[in-house]
């Protein structure tokens, strides 16, 4: 998949948003899903750029696996969370604006709650925006588990003495089997 690297400057936000827009249009997402994703990307880029180290780069990379699609944005900046983004949007003119602030907070919680994960390690922050979840992910994980379980059983039977194999079976697998059968 393609990747876009931008300098950490506010003037580059539109380039990043346009890159994501063109990717989503190519993948034929609905206009509503594109608008939600672009709003999220814009806010994430603004937060990352404002807290990124000077002269650093921000990379935007669309990813996909088994029908799922997501956008990863990486930057060298301190960790932040969704509430930090919301704080930038607060209206602080008068006390009467608490209703507006609550509405904005509710909107952002609904927008970000399921689709955004933010992880940080050693001053590198990665925000992943889930655009589409695969309809087949459960099936794929189940098949992978069955195949790995079969391979593990074969390896235990082939390379370990029978007493150790029986011990593993009675200590690990029998309680799991009983739990699922009785559950």
Task: Explain what the structure shows.
The protein has helices spanning 13-26, 31-51, 82-89, 98-112, 137-159, 162-182, and strands spanning 4-7, 57-65, 68-75, 116-121, 124-132. With 183 residues, it is of the alpha+beta class. Strands 1-2-3-5-4 form a 5-stranded antiparallel beta sheet, covered by helices on one side. Helix 1 (13-26) packs antiparallel against helix 2.
What are the main properties of this structure?
single chain; 183 residues; alpha+beta; 6 helices
Put the structure in a nutshell.
With 183 residues, this protein is of the alpha+beta class.
Shape: elongated
The H-and-E topology, N to C, reads as: EHHEEHHEEHH
**What is the first-to-last residue Cα distance?**
43 Å
Q: Biggest sheet, strands in spatial order?
A: 1-2-3-5-4
Please state the oligomeric state of the protein chains shown: single chain
The class by helix and strand makeup works out as alpha+beta
Per-chain topology:
Layout: E1 4-7, H1 13-26, H2 31-51, E2 57-65, E3 68-75, H3 82-89, H4 98-112, E4 116-121, E5 124-132, H5 137-159, H6 162-182
Antiparallel strand pairs: 1-2, 2-3, 3-5, 4-5
């Amino acid at each position: 998949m393609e990747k876009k690297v931008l300098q950490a400057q506010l003037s580059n936000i539109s380039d990043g948003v346009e890159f994501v827009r063109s990717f989503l249009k190519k993948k034929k997402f609905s206009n509503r899903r594109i608008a939600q994703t672009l709003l999220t990307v814009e806010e994430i880029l603004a937060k990352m750029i404002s807290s990124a180290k000077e002269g650093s780069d921000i990379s935007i990379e669309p990813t996909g696996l088994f029908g799922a699609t997501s956008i990863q944005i990486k930057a060298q900046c301190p960790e932040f969370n969704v509430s930090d983004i919301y704080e930038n949007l607060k209206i602080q003119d008068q006390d009467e604006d608490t209703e507006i602030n609550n509405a904005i907070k509710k909107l952002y919680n609904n927008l970000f709650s399921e689709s955004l994960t933010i992880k940080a390690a050693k001053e590198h922050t990665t925000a992943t925006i889930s655009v589409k979840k695969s309809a087949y992910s459960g099936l794929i994980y189940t098949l992978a588990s069955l195949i790995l379980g079969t391979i593990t059983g074969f390896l235990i039977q082939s390379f370990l003495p029978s007493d150790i194999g029986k011990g593993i079976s009675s200590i690990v697998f029998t309680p799991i089997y009983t739990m699922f059968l009785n559950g």
